[in-house]
Amino acid sequence: MPRVLVATLVAMIISIVVGPKFIAFLRRNEFGQQIREEGPEHHSTKQGTPTMGGMLMIVVVMFLAMAMRIEDVSTLTPMLTLVGVGILGAIDDYVNAQTGIGMRGRYKLIWQTLVALLAAWYIQRHFLINEINVPLVGDVGILPILFILFVAFVIVAMSNGVNLTDGLDGLAIVPVMIAATAGTTVAGMIDPLEHCAAIARAEDLWYHVDAAWGGAAIASDRLRGVLAGLELAESVTIDAHKWFATTMGCAMFLMREGGRGGHTPLSAEFHASPTYMPPSNARLDPYPKSVHWSPPFLRLGPLPSPRAPRWSGDRRPLGRRVKRRA
Q: What is the pLDDT of residue 22?
């Protein structure tokens, strides 16, 4: 396990260092995505986006696996399968960069099926698998040939899972939101909120600010400036129990009025059960039985803090606490 963790860390560092140079190499040699003419007009902005980037990840993974001797029977098959479909992907990207069309679907499917059958055959022969676990049923016996066909089908299906929903331009990964942090719990670090908002606006992305810890600074005239750009967010989270002296169960999720497209959030869509909240079997946990989690105290959650009956009441103690911690 330590070698695997070290290899993962080294792979990440190599990818970060070598990645930009590899992308520059692809750009210089015009290995870019060709956008189909029948696609939407706004897809044309993606013309020339570097492709064949998966080669870097495959080479790094295989090199580290062999250099650190972490390959074994259980990892060799998926790594060789990765190489097999990776070669296919590289050829397909190269053909697309040269012709704008890519390989024909039937040829890709034949290649994937051959690689998958070899991998499935090796798995079955080496581990002598003669049964599979079916959910809600248990272990079920299966003939070797059926197991090979089943595993091959899974490999091919997973390989095409993205391709079938890839879109007209062949670029499946699309960002949908930017989440900035306004006050990390340990160090109180704040992201450049205005710059993040500008990027989200330019790219038409949802802009969310996690101000669970630092959002209370809006109550202080002296500290409010550090949250410049918070007002540009489309949604904000603030934990009132961190600085506003409310009960532990009191937190806020705020959205710009009407939300994007006029939609309002539904509690079911944003419901979460973090580990630090009481579990469903709270009667077995002594922590929720404390005063802070007692039912009478939790009912005070929506009410203002007893110590600060007005907005200005939180301003002075908040400033004093920040000054004392600094």
A: 84
Q: How many whole angstroms separate alpha carbon 17 and alpha carbon 29?
A: 20
Q: What is the pTM of this model?
A: 0.48
**CA-closest candidate to residue 25, choices 62, 59, 60, 50:** 50
Total Cβ atoms within 10 A of residue 77 = 16
Give Cβ neighbours of residue 112 (< 8 Å, ≥ 6 apart).
Answer: 85, 88, 155, 156, 159, 160
Whether 271 maps to a domain, the answer reads no
d(CA 146, CA 317) in angstroms, rounded, equals 70
| 156 has a pLDDT exceeding 80 | yes
Which domain range does residue 82 map to? 2-36+44-165
pLDDT, residue 297, reads 58
Tell me if 214 sits within 8 A of 227, measured CB to CB.
Answer: yes
Highest mean pLDDT among 30-34, 222-226, 283-287: 222-226
Domain end call among 144, 165, 186:
165
Q: Which residues contact 110 (CB under 8 A, 6 or more apart)?
A: none
Structure tokens at 108: 């890709």
Cα–Cα distance between 217 and 313 in angstroms, integer? 13
CA dist., res. 295 & res. 158, Å (int): 48
Spatial distance between the Cα atoms of 266 and 197, rounded to a whole number of angstroms: 24
